[in-house]
Amino acid sequence: MQAPGFIFGCGAQGRVVLDILRAQFPERTFYFVDENKSLWQTKINEVEVIGGMEAMLAIDKQASIHIAIGNPHTRKKIVTTLKARNVDFLSAIHPSSIIMTSCKLGDGLMIGAGAIINSNTSIGDFCIINTGAVVEHDCLLEEYTCISPRACIGGRVNIKTNSFISSGAIVRARVEIGKNAIVGMGAIVVKNVLDSEIVYGNPAKIQGRVDKNFDWGKAL
To answer: pLDDT tens for residues 58-71?
Structure first.
């Protein structure tokens, strides 16, 4: 019998990941893990929230888990904690996604329904490529980046770590997006975006900067 899988985070991202994993591994049992104690021993979409990290490790000391957290900085903190506990990280890749065989895929990815990743692209660890997003050929996405639904990334684009591309954005070929940057919904990006810049509009222009006080609820 196949060991159960776990999903850390049972919010909207976790529910989407659950459906992807059910399609990917139809015979496997999954549980939610969350540090919010008010959710423990409840069910979300018919899946039990077993408790926090310690409850998961009590079931399986070498657990296989997907981190379903949209905020890249929070996701990174959780990954760092769990790496020290020697768990395995599970990628959630929807069967309807199209990924060319020449692509390189990292660990702990989420690749949503209908996403397309084209030839010779490299996707770093713990990235999110969401529903219907397109990442064209020869792109480099560094770890913890997020490509939101229906975003389109042109060929040979380099997106640095922790950056967030919002829904429906279009990034021109050969552009570089700096680390911790945010590209707003529907933006048309035609030139490089520097570290921690917030850009949106057509063409995309600098509208602010990401700092330690940035409210990620505005982006997620």
So the answer is: 877 777 999 999 99
Contacts of 88 (CB under 8 A, 6+ apart): 62, 63, 64, 65
- 5-90 CATH fold: Rossmann fold (3.40.50)
Stated pTM of the model: 0.94
**Looking at the domain that runs over 93-210, which CATH code has it been given?**
2.160.10.10
- Tokens representing 31 are 């549980």
Domain ranges of the chain: 5-90, 93-210
Omega before 203 within 30 of 0, i.e. cis: yes
